[in-house]
Fold this sequence. Notes:
Elements: E1 4-10, E2 15-18, E3 24-37, E4 43-53, H1 54-63, E5 69-82, E6 88-103, H2 105-114
Parallel strand pairs: 4-6
Antiparallel strand pairs: 1-3, 1-5, 2-3, 3-4, 5-6
Amino acid sequence: MNKVVxxxxxxxxxxxxxxGNNTAVATFSLAVNRNFSNQQGEREADFIxxxxxxxxxxxxxxxxxxxxxxxVEGRIQTRTYDDNNGQRRYVTEVVADNVEFLGSKNSxxxxxxxxxxxxxxxxxxxxxxxxPEPKGTDVDSNPFADFGANIEISDDELPF
Length: 160
């Protein structure tokens, strides 16, 4: 079985390309924190290359940027190619079957501030700064305009 599930933050904006038969493919790198600290007491991260195809590739390009938090489900793939010098190169990457948008850079900064009172919560090994403003305010044209915002739900509003 070849199954991978990762949660992390984009280390750079996704790159979108199209194949010869016009199939969308996006690539990005994901920083994933390790579950343990090194000998100096610091938490380290792994940087994993992700490839996503078709409509999901276009959505990744349109709605994610450096620092966005995502969950990726997919499989590990290793491929080879010959570089310009004729040297054989090996590439290991995750081919994503599903990319879930978990939060923006702003929501991560807010959650880090809330966790600051917890003595075990330390700084992450990477800091991405503030998120860009949403590209639109019309929810009909941009279904992710309020992505990451809190939603208040009351039992009084339920139809049953």
